[in-house]
Design brief:
The protein has 23 helices and four strands. A hairpin with an 8-residue loop joins strand 3 and strand 4.
């Protein structure tokens, strides 16, 4: 019992253990200890053990919560403090957080074990486990954080790991393009999250979740602006309209990452955020109604697009979007308990389906079932479903192409101005013709190369010309005169004269 009472203070180990496994695995890779078939089992065992450790801690905390009640909001330390603002390292261990976090830890541990065999002899085996550990740490911060700042850190870790896993096969242009599309689309949601945190700091003076949910009788405009940022973040992370297109492109990643990210865990992060802030949302009825409308529209979109899919992973991803949309509808109607139960059941079921997807062709016979006849008879609707209502192209025009143009402009600035000013590694050229050993690039590099050239010329003139340079010859002459003086002083008469001169000076 004493151990169970201590476990809530050790909840920080839940995200810390995957980060520790990440660091050790990365160090092994850098030191060349993770090579060949022999290097795979230690990586898989270490990351799997870290995931299991997080699961064990959460099970212990959950057992203590079942016996003595949920620990609630626990502040373990101060992250930073500035004036009246304070960022704390706090965790909110209520039934919602403990249930979802434990389920995520269980699915993460199973996916780790599955990946050890699924990715055997893959070129990016160790890289996959490193990124997957980063994701598990991030998602646990999202679920367990007691304040918005710590949750946002986990939110960003999930985004970065998602980008890296979608672009897992970085040699393929399609994979990198899909990773960029997903990354840019989710940054709009991140902007909304930051907007919500900024309003919380300005109007409530706190980033803690209990402070946001306990705020009552807020002016309608204040509550609306405070909640709308978090709603945008949730819609983007859970792939609801108008942010839905990115999730279909996310299937470029390996199957275990699809199961974790887009089937079972990360796609539900937006739903979890809405459940966490449900008391705040209930103060804004029009925003609740907007969630219902967006959820219904997303469900219709996913249903129609799912009817025309011919591969199992695409069909599963649209089924996932459909179910998540129903969760948003339930939250908008105030049925938060139903949405929470739906989240847990759907996450477990969808994780199993995605992990089973590679074997689906062996389990089924015959071609995929065609689209319904009524849909095929409507040429316009069928084309729209196949083209995913052209939202992909709209996202490319509005998000991806401006980002690429901005990146190209930055690259041109770096190439034409910054590199020329500061120099580029390996791009140096001789300062002057015929002096191939003195190279420099950039303004600073060329100045140093010119200085080195002048020093080289000075050295050549003084010391290295012929049998001896000017400096050496001058030193030889001085040495000869000093030798003459020494020989004179060694003679007795000159020695006596030197002694007498010394006495005269003394007297």
């Amino acid at each position: 019992m004493s151990l169970l009472r201590l476990l809530p203070d050790l909840v920080w180990l839940v995200p810390a253990l995957p980060l520790l496994a990440l660091a050790v695995t990365g160090l092994r890779v850098l030191l060349g200890r993770a090579q060949g078939d022999a290097g795979e089992p230690p990586t898989a065992r270490l990351c799997t053990l870290a995931a299991f450790g997080s699961l064990a801690i959460l099970l212990g905390i959950g057992l203590g919560a079942a016996l003595a009640g949920a620990p609630g909001h626990r502040v373990l330390g101060t992250w930073f403090a500035s004036g009246d603002w304070q960022g704390t390292v706090s965790f909110l261990l209520d039934p919602l957080a403990l249930t979802v976090a434990t389920l995520a830890a269980l699915i993460g541990w199973l996916a780790m074990r599955f990946s050890a065999n699924y990715l055997h002899r893959e070129a990016g085996f160790h890289r996959f486990f490193i990124v997957l550990s980063l994701f598990l740490a991030g998602i646990q911060l999202v679920f367990l954080a007691g304040n918005g700042l710590l949750a946002f850190v986990g939110w960003e870790l999930c985004g970065v790991s998602s980008f890296l896993l979608i672009g897992y096969a970085w040699q393929r242009p399609v994979a990198t393009a899909s990773a960029l599309f997903a990354f840019v689309s989710n940054r709009a949601g991140d902007a909304g999250f930051l907007l919500g945190l900024g309003f919380a700091a300005a109007w409530l003076g706190s980033f803690e979740w209990p402070a946001l949910t306990a705020a009552r009788d807020l002016p309608l405009l204040t509550a609306r602006l405070l909640a709308i940022g978090f709603v945008v973040a949730a819609l983007a992370k859970s792939a609801q309209l108008p942010f839905t297109p990115w999730i279909a492109r996310a299937l470029e990643g390996p199957t275990p990452s699809s199961a974790l990210f887009y089937g079972a865990i990360m796609v539900h992060a937006g739903v979890f955020l809405m459940l966490r802030l449900a008391p705040l949302l209930q103060q804004v009825p029009d925003l609740m109604a907007a969630l219902v409308v967006i959820g219904v529209a997303t469900a219709l979109y996913a249903w129609l697009c799912g009817l025309v899919q011919t591969d199992v992973k695409s069909a599963l991803i649209f089924a996932t979007v459909f179910q998540v949309a129903l969760m948003f509808v339930a939250i908008g109607l105030g049925w938060t308990t139903l949405a929470a139960v739906h989240l847990c059941l759907h996450a477990a079921w969808r994780a199993w389906q995605f992990l089973l997807a590679p074997s689906w062709l062996a389990l089924t016979q015959g071609p995929p079932r065609p689209a319904p006849a009524w849909l095929r008879r409507s040429q316009l609707l069928y084309t729209a479903a196949v083209e995913r209502f052209w939202l992909d192209r709209l996202g490319i025009v509005l998000l991806v192409r401006p980002t690429e143009s901005f990146a190209n402009d930055l690259h041109g600035l770096e190439k034409n101005f910054i590199d020329r000013a500061l120099g580029e590694p390996g791009g140096g050229r001789p300062a002057r013709a015929g002096l191939s050993l003195i190279v420099g690039d950039g303004v600073a590099g060329r100045l140093l190369a010119g200085l080195a050239e002048q020093l080289q010329r000075l050295e050549t003139h003084l010391s290295l010309r012929g049998r001896g340079g000017a400096a050496e010859q001058a030193l030889r002459r001085v040495g000869a005169w000093l030798r003459i003086v020494e020989n004179l002083l060694e003679q007795p008469r000159y020695l006596m004269m030197a002694v007498m001169a010394t006495f005269v000076v003394i007297l």
